[in-house]
Amino acid sequence: MNEFDVIVIGGGSAGSAVAGRLAENASRTVCVVEAGGTNDNFRIKTPGMLAFLPKNANWAFETVPQKGLNGRIGYQPRGRGLGGSSAINAMLYVRGNRFDYDQWASLGCTGWSYDDVLPYFKRSEGNERGGDAFHGADGPLSVVDQHWPNPGSRAFVASAEALQLGANPDFNGATQDGFGLYQVTQKGGERWSAARAYLSPRPNLTVKTGALVERIVIENGRATGVAVRIGDRREVLRARGGVVLSAGAFGSPQILMLSGIGPAAHLKDNGIEVQADSPAVGEDLQDHIDYVHGWKTQSKDFVGDSLAGSWKMLRAIAEHRVKRTGMMTTPFAEGGGFWRSQPGLPAADVQYHFVPAMLEDHGREKVSGHGFSIHACVLRPESRGTVRLGSSDPAAPPVIDPNFLSDDRDMATLRRGVRMMHRIVEVPPLANYNPENRHPVDLEDDAALDQLIRNRADTVYHPVGTCRMGGDEGSVVDPTLQARGVRGLWVADASVMPRLVSGNTNAPSIMIGERCADFIKTALA
């Protein structure tokens, strides 16, 4: 029972899609190896429990001190368990911009233009609005509208419209620019993670949870298995056809390096035998640097910490447990938009997320009262970072350095985004809440604004690029996602993105998994 046709490392967004699609062929045996648990509990399934997720569902990584953030250590939550980050994210269904994928193709990723990837987005998608030129209706990933949004979220969208920033009911349609309410990956009022979408029980699909991958077994230049640790027991799982690495932008480069694939000097420094010298492994880390600003209100429309707010929440939990309806279906980041901060850009360079609650430190700090928060992030950052090994111990966290705001162009974009955020708040109907600015600053003073940004900005949870795909020999994987220098090994997750997409990364990661499954089917035919 320890030999399979294909072993998939990681049961997250891309890994679930790869495994599920490969297992549709009943004659092919597939094994998913996942370090975390099943994530089969009501706190994960209930969208509104986002602030109360089980700690064992989150790797909760931290960065090295960030010079661009005034020396602060950043927080990097990553999903642990089946579904990966799709089990702990805000469930927003956003694909990015046509420009992103056409840029990938222009960089040597043949077959990855927008027209190439659109059929895979549609194939994965089961949109309640139905299918059309841009959307699929029958895919396993359930995508729905928000049916109980907070009135403040609607006010935010209306205020943006009042500023002539445009309304957009579909960020994944003909155009991305404009403001609206996000669609979400939910079904029947519950979170619909990639695991729930793709990992249906099948006789030929084995899912091993609680299995920490120590290394990929490489023999004569070919990936032939995976060495895992389950509790105190070690075992080697054999793969007849190949191995798919889907451990994410931090986990995938870490596992490659532990397996001897990466920058030779770094591997030797950690006492690891070099199987393939691949300097790009762990390089090119890109992430959406994000600034969050909060406003306090007297209105109890917003989610908040008060006696009235607590009773409202308890009633909402009870309603959701019985009917799967109401406020507890919220993704919290309910409204948002895409905005071009200066003329001549090929696509929006700033994304907004509106949250009908006051957030501090990724929601980890308790804030009394009621109010709202707005995120602004730089969609196509120029700053680049790295992922490195902290040690040769597979259980040790990787060393993560996003190198945030090291490029001045990112600060210039974020500055413009924050200023527009404040303009939106000053316009009715959002202004009718008489919001009180929790972090006052002279918006016209670049130095003061930059200081506030560096004191508050951090990730909005979209790391990519550390196993870059490309047509050049220096890339980690080729355009069919096969690892260079090792046969029988594919990488499929956000780590392969050569450039960060202009939007949230969950839907693109699932698309990458769908594509990888097709590449493997062709290779094994």
What features would you highlight for this structure?
alpha/beta; 23% strand; Cholesterol Oxidase, domain 2; FAD/NAD(P)-binding domain; 2 domains; 525 residues; eight-stranded antiparallel β-sheet; 25 strands
The gist of it:
The protein has 525 residues and is an alpha/beta fold. Helix content is 25%, strand content 23%. The strands form seven sheets. Strands 7, 16, 17, 18, 19, 20, 23 and 24 form an eight-stranded antiparallel β-sheet that branches.
Describe this structure in words.
α1 packs parallel to α12 and α4 crosses α12. This protein is of the alpha/beta class and about 525 residues long. The protein has helices at about 15-20, 40-45, 100-105, 115-125, 150-160, 195-200, 250-260, 265-270, 305-325, 410-425, 445-455, 505-525, and strands at about 5-10, 30-35, 60-65, 70-75, 125, 140-145, 180, 185, 190, 205-210, 210-220, 220-230, 235-245, 260, 275, 290-295, 305, 335-340, 350-355, 370-380, 385-390, 400, 435, 460, 490. β3 and β4 (about 70-75) form a beta hairpin. The radius of gyration is 22 Å and the shape is globular. The chain has 2 domains: about 1-140 and about 185-285 and about 385-400 and about 465-525, FAD/NAD(P)-binding domain (3-Layer(bba) Sandwich); about 145-180 and about 290-380 and about 405-455, Cholesterol Oxidase, domain 2. It contains 12 helices and 25 strands. The model has no long low-confidence stretch (mean pLDDT about 95). The strands form 7 sheets. Strands 7, 16, 17, 18, 19, 20, 23 and 24 form an 8-stranded antiparallel beta sheet that branches.
